[in-house]
Structures are given as structure tokens and as C-alpha cells.
Amino acid sequence: MMATESGKAFTRRDRLLEIEKKVRGWWDEKDVFRAEPGAGPAKPGEKFFGNFPFPYMNGFLHLGHAFSLSKLEFAAAFHRLDGTNVLLPFGFHCTGMPIQASADKLAREIEEFGNPPLFSKEVEEPVESQPEPEDASAGPSPDKFRGKKSKAVSKSGGQMFQWEIMRSFGLSDSEIAEFQKPGKWLTYFPPLAMQDLKDFGLGCDWRRSFITTEMNPYFDSFVQWQMRKLKDMGKIIKDKRYTIYSPLDDQPCADHDRASGEGVLPQDYTLVKMEVLPPFPLKFKALEGRKVFLAAATLRPETMYGQTNAWVLPDGNYGAFEVNDTDVFILTERAALNLAYQGFSKTPKHPSCLVELTGYDLIGLPLKSPLSFNKVIYALPMLTILTDKGTGIVTSVPSDAPDDYMALRVLKAKPAFRERYGVKDEWVLPFEIVPIINIPELGDKAAEKVCLDLKIKSQNEKEKLAEAKRLTYLKGFTDGTMLVGEYAGMKVQEAKSLLRTKLIETSEAVMYSEPEKRVMSRSGDECVVALTDQWYLTYDDPQWKESAEECLSKMNLYSDETKHGFEHTLGWLNRWACSRSFGLGTRIPWDPEFLVESLSDSTIYMAYYTVAHLLHNEDMYGTNKAHPIKPEEMTDDVWNFIFCDGPYPTSSKIDSSVLDKMKEEFEYWYPFDLRVSGKDLIQNHLTFCVFNHTAIMAKHHWPRGFRCNGHIMLNSEKMSKSTGNFKTLRQAIDEFSADATRFSLADAGDGVDDANFVFETANAAILRLTKEIAWIEEVLAAEASLRTGPPSTFADRVFENEINIAVETTRKNYEKYMFREALKTGFYDLQAARDEYRLSCGSGGMNHGLVWRFIDVQTRLITPICPHYAEHVWRELLMKDGLAVNAGWPIADSPDETLKAANKYLQDSIVLMRKLLQKLITGSKKSNKKAAPVATLTEEKITSLIYVNEEFDGWKAECLNILRSKFDRKTGTFAPDEEILEALQKSSVGQDANFKKVQKLCMPFLRLKKDEAIAIGAQALNLKLPFGEIEVLQENLDLIKRQIGLGSVEILSATDHDAKAKAGALSSVLDQNPPSPGNPTAVFLIQ
Predict the structure, then answer these.
(1) How confident is the model at residue 580, as a pLDDT?
(2) Non-local CB neighbours of 423 within 8 Å, separated by 6+ positions
(3) Of 258, 293, 307, 576, which one is least surrounded by beta carbons within 10 A?
(4) Alpha helices (H) in 816-896, listed in sequence order
(5) Count of CB atoms within 10 A of residue 559's CB?
(6) What is the rounded CA–CA span in Å between residue 674 and residue 1012?
(7) Counting Cβ atoms within 10 Å, is residue 111 exposed (0-12), middle (13-18) or buried (19+)?
(8) Residues 703, 680: Cα–Cα separation, whole Å
(9) In this predicted model, what pLDDT tens digit does every residue of 888-947 receive, in sequence order?
């Protein structure tokens, strides 16, 4: 609900909504955002092509979309206002699995619960939500409402049913049932998104809009061409790779397919096969005749020489899983599921458990482990094992693993602990540390030394153990040398891979991989790592990476953080699975069983915008209208001709003028100048965009700029549907109006850090914009009362200068895409200057020409951010021809910095004098509390003598002369302090008999002036200000009298002895506080 002080706020908002509706009609009538290419290739600065990652159409657009999009919209609107030919197109992404998965969920819910579904009744008492596994320490805030869950929701793990989600969209039950078909999503949400964006005021050429997937035959043809081209270039290959995989969807789960775990990669382990020696215990009877192994996942195969035992979790759940006809692995079910998708299960993708076990069943098992110098080791209990990492079986190497060292020491030292878990002495006591690696400074028993150095006494000292592990593992890998085995004398980092390969080749270990963190698919299942045979884009190709690096080096990325994000991504990016078997999209042309995944069909589609309108005939689906070109006519030869400067497609049935027009559009608009995106897309989409452009496009068509931003918070809290702190774009427009929403988005922030959309700011914008309209209406109604003629007063000149400053600084801010600063300099600061001008003019009134210029300039400067407001003022109040959005950037003279400084001097002086007088009056009242009351002071009773010293003299002048001689104007730095002090001592001041006394005054003054010079430059060291102080004050006597409340004011020179005498008994004030350049001294005479 909108925070308002009164019902008037709704009236004001409704006024803005009425204006916005009217203005959109003007825009539509003039087709103002239609983008047409100029003649021939665009000259530098002639055109601006900006775009935005098309949003996914499984719901409504929200303020997160609007925030990122606003950066593009404001940039495009600025360029349009400045006379640039602007193209801002917008498409809608439907590729991938979320829509298909949601449609399938609806179908399952209808099948299980009916149509409409009858879910269980709500639980009456609140249900505390469990913390997410990735943030187990974070509980709900005590001031947060904990909502009720239905029993059905509770059973589903806290997720809402899809039907309930659709109801939250405002859909009726009869409508929801239609969304079982994926195609319904594609026809329902994109038109609504388009309307929301139109009402937002997006300056888009909607003729070029389209949806993805094979529902759009033209875009489908474009993607198929792109994939064939990449394959022909050797950029797409078929290979077996480890990839994050959804068992439920039975396909790889890329970043955009995930509900959580975006950016998580497979973590590779060596799975060491620790053979269980006969005789088997009774629980293992079903395993007789098989080779049974405890399967331990390790990242350090080179340490296997030093094994003293294996660790198991006593209360952990394990199983004996068939790997093939002969081998059985004992591990957790989670690990078995991963292995089943990697070829290590008798039945692929389905773990086969022969015996269910607990850790207690494994304690005491005798083991023969690869490389171990101990021929037989035993499985022993460890209470800190995590079963959601690795296999639940852990190798023990106490020489180099601090955890193992401490656990083994506890077992040896505590007989009661051994007895509790049935551990026999002979399984533990005979086993000593085996030195296997020498690490400089840590020796050949690194774990023992580090634990002793850190004074670790217990396995519960987690922070100390973590530090011990960091030291031993890092130094062991980088500096360690093997002491044993066939690679003795070799560096650990070299021996590691050789030993891993040997263990795998001798069948003593296998490769194993799992997600490095938990990953949940959008279908709701936990993902595994699968070894899949599928199509990959070879982003790991060194030459291709070099081209990507070259492209990025020439791009404008607008921040170092963005640049570092790309550098990091290029460092780890490997082959990328580009095919899927589930979801919506375009079929792989040579392997139609598979679809192109959602991050691979959206890498160069920006080029498609340049010709979409010529193919679609203003139909985003490409199928609902008669089209001048048939989809099948868009052959590879045609696409190559348009985008890759290929030969003219002589066999094409498309009219040559249309072919030439498509090529002309592309050549004019490309490359795109700016792509705006959230920073989370650096690690995939944006990097893929660079790679694919460098592969397919000529260098002069490579992207020119990426501007990345953070996420948006609402009222300083994370935007989240689950907490209710969420707002769709439509809700924001209805609640605040489009322009107030845009105003608040501009104010939210411009950096890569998360920004903050504040409802109070949006409400304040409603008030500001409507009040400004009212003020303009009042001024124009009383136009005759304005002072005519050219600007003539000091206030006129200052205000005119402030307008010029606003024009210049706001332009710079828009050019840098710093929209919060543009809002400040082009609106807030300019309004403050207007308010000061009104005050300064007094009874003389404001200048007619300047007021009109102010309204004109302010309207243009705010146009990119609040275009509806600007159009209303432009057309209906200023009665201007044309439209504000392309009215042109205002022309202004260069700012006069001296005049600005003079006005600051004037205003600062007035403030100080007002405070001084107030203090004087207050002091008089206090001193007369017990005496007769002081007569009420009126303006007529107070006279002010303002003394000015326009030039530094004496020791201050000498100090400034010295500083000027020691200041480097090029670097903005001073010589060392010792050198300045030496010069002072040699000067006439230093030679004076009273130098020690004067020196105490000189040092603070020198420091003050040094700081000023470093801040503003050499002018701070001048003996005089760049303007006449007496002249400025004299010209503003009326303002000074009105502002301070004086009967009369006289400006006097402090160097005039006769003038000093006018102060009478108060002349001592001048001695105590002598005036200096920039600091006049006021004396008040009360009659």
C-alpha cells in the first residue's frame, strides 16, 4: 500500500497517470520511437543501438527487470534527445525448461488433485521454515512474519503448488487449466509484458519484437543457421563431459535451468577403492563372491601412501551398491546416484543397492587400500563426517591431514571412546604416522607440527583446524616434495596427476564427480553430475579465448569490477553443453532429438533485431499475419549475406531490394553500442555473447559496450516473492505512476553494487513533479508580472550561470550513464538554484526570459528520466512544437566558475552574518534576564558595517608566495614540508624578531592553504579572490538586508582607517577577527 500523508497523494498520482496516458497517445500518433537507418554506414556518434537481455516469459516483469532496463532506457533517451539516431528493440525469451516444467507441474497437479485442484486445508498453527542448506546458520529475523503453510505445501518441501503460483498472477481457475500447454504461456505473458513496458514509457521500436523457440519460424531459422555455422567452424563438437544434470528432467541443468546453485560446477575427485578383506561379517552375506570396496573420495591421491585407517560416520546411512557384475561399492546413496550417472552402476542412472548399512556395520572392517604402506588398515569411527560431500567414506592420512591426526590421537588416547564404538586396540594402537611428503618449514609430519603450533587440543576446535588444513594443504601442494614411492623427489604438484592416472589405469581408483555445492533444478529435484555424451561449445579453445580477450579489451565495460568479472570467467570457462532434450526452443539442426539450450540461442540475437521488422510484419510470433518473406526462404546463404558479408544469394526467391534492405539495416546499426545487464550474467550470457560474436562476426561488428549493474533492493531489503517484499512493474506503475517509478529507479543507484528502490522516493517524486507542474502553471498565469528585458542583476547572472552549469554537468553524467548524478544535477540542483533565485530577486521580481529558459532547460534535462512529465510541460504549458523526447539537448554558454564562486561567497557570508546576529541577540537577552527587558529589535534598529580585506598582506602574503613557488601545477603537489619551512625561515617573516610568535600563526595557515590548493588548484594560493568582494556585496545590499533582517548595510574596506573608526567601540572586533580574502567581518550597531 502506498505511503501517503493524505488522499491528495492519490489525486496527484492519478494526475500523472492521466498525463502519461495522454502522452503515449502523442507518441503513438507520431510513431516517435520508430528507428530507420540513415544513408550508408553510420558515422561515429550518428547512431546508438542499445539492447537488454530479453526477459524470460514465465511470469510478469518486475522491478528487478525494470531497474536494469532503466539504465538502457535512460541512455537511449539521452542519445535520442541529443539528436542521435536511436534503436532500442525488445524481445521475449521463451527457450529452456522453466515454462515446460511449470506446464508439466500443472498437468500433474490436475491429475492428482482434480480440476480445479482441491489441496489439503491450511494448517492452523504457523510452521517455521527451515533455513536453506547453503546458509544453515541464518535464521528468520524476529520481526519477520512467518506465514502459514498448507499441509500439501509442507509435504512438497515448502514450495508452492504451480496452481497457487498461477492464482497469485490473478488468473481464474478456468484460465489456469489452459496453461498445461506450454504454448499458452507464450501467447499470454509476452503481450502483457509489452503493454507494461509501453506504459512504463519505454522508447522501443516494437516492430522489431519477437519471441524465441520454434513457435517463431524466422528466429528458429536464425538460430539453426548460427548453430550450423559454429559447427562448420569446429566450435561445436560431440564429447563425453561431466556436467550438472537433473535426474527428473533427464538432461543437463545449466545456470538458467536452476532454482538454486547458479554458477556451481562439477567437483572432480579420485575415488579410491579400499577392498574389504574376507571373511565378511554376517551382514555382508549377500555380497559373498563379489569384490567389495569402501569407496573414498579424495582430492589428494598423492597422500595415499600414508593411510593408517579409513573413517566412517557411525550413525551414517550407507549402502552396498552394484557397480557391475563383480564389483560392489559401499558409500552413501547420494554418491551412488552420482556414480550411476557416470557409468558406475549395473543399471545406468539407477543405483542398485544390495544391502542397506549404517556406519556401525562398517567399523572394524579390514581393508586393503591402494598405495598404503600398511598392508591392512581398518574402518574407524569419526563423528564429523558430512554425508552431503564425497561418499561418506574418508581416507585417513594423519601425516598431512590435521583432522585425521587429531581424530586418530583421540582414539588412541581414550579407551572409553574406543569401547563405546567397539573399536579393538589392534585396529588403532599399532598405527603410527607415516612420513610421505616433506614441506619446507613444516617437515615430514606437517599435520602434527601445525596442530602443535596452533595448540589444537580437540576435534571441536573447528576454526583452528580449518587454519591448520589451509596451511598444510596449500604448502603441501605448492612447496611439498614426495619422499616415497616411484615419484620420490618429485614436487607434489607434478606427482599428483601422475599418481591419479596410475591409480585409475590399474583399476585401484575411478574418476568421480559431484556438484561442488547443492544444485536444485527448476523442476524441484536435486541435481547430480552426469558423464554425458552431448553437443558442446568449445569455449576452452585457446585461440577462441584469445579472440574473446581481444574483443573485451576494446570494449567499454564502465567499471573495473565488471572487467575483473570477465577476466575471472575467461579463466575458468570450459566446454559448454549447448544441447537439451527437455523444454522449449530450436532443434539442433543435425541432431533434431535435441534442443539448443537457452544460453546458447541468445548470444548474437541482437543482430536479429536489425532485420526482425522486415520478416515479422509487426507480429512477434512470425505466424499470425501475412509475411512478405517465407521462413523457408531464410536460408544459410541469405543469413550469411546479411550478417557475414557472404556472397549475394543468387538462388534466393527473396526480392533483391528486400535483401539489400536487410543488409543495409544490419550494416547501419551494427555493432551494438551498449548492452545493459545485471552483473550475474557476466559468468555466462555476456561472456558467451562475446565468444559467439568473435566467431561469427567481422571485427568491426564486435560489441562495443557492456554496462553491468547490481540487483535492486526494495526499501533496503532483498526483493523476494517468498517474503512479500516484491513488486511487479505493473504494480509499481499503478501505485506510483510510470514517471515516479522511473524517477526512483534513477535515484536507486548506478554502480555494480546492489541498488535500493525506496517507496518514499517514489512518493516524493509524485509530489515534486505535480508541484512543479503547478508552479509552472502559476508562473505562466502571472507572466505579466515578470520583469522584462535582458538579464541585468547579479541574481540574474548567477541563475543564468547555474542553468549553464546544469546543462554541462548533466550532459557529462548522462554520457557516463550516471543517472543518479544526472537526476541530481539536472533536477535537484537546478530546482535549488531556481528557489535561491526567487529569494534573491525580492520585490524586483524574476526575469521573464530566464524563467522561460529555466522551464525549457529543466524540461529537457529531465526528459530521459521522466518523459511523460516533460512532454506535458513541453507541449501544453510551454506550447512548443514537436515532442520533448527529440527536442535537442539545450544549448548553453560555458559556465562561469568565477561567478559561481562569487555567489557562493555571497551566500556563505549571509549565512555566517545571520548566525552572528542571532547569537548577538540571544546573548543580549540572556544577559538581561534579571534586568529590564530589552526592547524588541526591529530591522530599522540594526545597522551592519561589513568590513572587507580583498588582498592578503603581511606574513600571510609571504606564506602564499612561498607556497606558490613550491607548488607543481602539473602534478598538483608541493615540495617537502622541510623545504617550505626552510624558505619561510629565510624570508622577511623569518628574519623578523617576532618570528617565533608569528610562526605559530604561519603553520596552520600553510596547512590550510596547502589542502585548498591540492583540492582546487593553484588559484587557492592567489593573494586575491578572482572577483571583487566589495563589488559583489555592494551589488547585493538589498538581498543582504532582507536575508539578515537589517535596517541598513554599509560595505567598508578594512584598509581604510577612517572606515574602521565608524565601528566605534566595536572596532576591537576587527582586531580580534580581522577580515581576510573570502572572510568579511560584520559589526552590528543596534540603535
Answers:
(1) 87
(2) 363, 364, 380, 381, 411, 417
(3) 258
(4) 819-823, 829-841, 848-862, 867-872
(5) 16
(6) 39
(7) exposed
(8) 19
(9) 999 999 999 889 999 999 999 999 999 988 888 877 555 544 444 444 455 567 899 999
